[in-house]
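Exercise: predict the structure of this protein bound to alpha-D-galactopyranose.
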Amino acid sequence: MIKDSVVQFFKDNYSPNPVIVRSPGRVNIIGEHTDYNLGFVLPASIEKAIYFALQLNGTNTFNIEAFLTLPEKISLDAKGNGPEFSCFWGKYFKAIIEILNEKNYPLKGVDFVFGGDIPIGSGLSSSAALCCGFTYALSKILHLNIDRTEIAKIGQEAEHRIGLNCGLMDQYAVLFGKKGNALFLDCKDLSYKYVPINLVGYSWVLINSKITHELAVGNEYNERRQSCEAIVEKAKENNSNVASLRDVSEDAIMAIKNDVDTTDFKRALYVIQENERVLKMIKALENGDAKEVGNILLAGHKSMSTDFEISTSEIDYLVNVSQEQDGVVGSRMMGGGFGGCTINLIKDKNVDKAVKKILTAYKEETGITPECYHLQIDDSVQTLNS
Ligand code: GLA
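Solution:
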């Protein structure tokens, strides 16, 4: 198991008694690009995770080493300065150390080794797991007492500094997720409740398209956010109480349709309707109505693809081909867009056959070998015993 390898590597190369922290990835049942518009989301923390082994080193230096896939080591002083590094992940740690300094948390040197099994760039939020796990681990070992909401905000701020103007969905899933449940989060007041997503006779399955997209590198994600903000500015002219798209109704956006950019309009309408889909999804899950759940997933994907324009031809193929299989009731792309995983709801009795057919068809169509994971919802970030 990856956790054991990380811990053993730490013991062999650093010190014998590390603290161990597990920080999970996340899925999202529905509610994409709604978080930074202060809308609704329905994510869940999963069993795939990043593991940190760490211990105080009696200096003022952070030594951080990635285990396995990214074999690189960086050193940063207590202010976040240090020799140049080329690894992308190093930027996140540096940003977090800088933010903690700005917030006047007293820092001391720590040795870290981390590694995990969240596929990078697959829409499962490995960067939120990294940022929130690192901050949580530092808070534990240095007794900083940073509460979970604050850790989420620090994780988000780190993403903003690296270049992704994200919302808080991923960080909240990492920090507040709970085994067996999805987290229905209202991004306006950050209130949440747990929602079981098990539907008797059905399974949730993720299919990784293996199309990876570093959202923080391209500008497509941030452009979507700008479109939403442009509509908010216009809507404010009619109603000064509007602070985000959450405050804009479908009627209100229709009223300004001819005064705004067509692309911005389509994108913002998608967000307003996506919020509605989250609410409908909660009802459908509560009613155990798998057919309706499937229809909402498909409607969400269609609008993400044609209106919000964040899908790719490969992902659209994956969603479409899944619909041709017996027992697949719904499918949609998950996460920030432009690649990653689809989430699928499939009748138990059809799962094996349907997944096999989807994987084969996708490989034939694209030449890419996809992967499949059965969704397992697990707990939020936590300290483990070694
Ligand atoms: C990324 C961002 C999140 C959210 C999703 C899309 O994962 O980090 O804040 O906006 O995309 O729903």
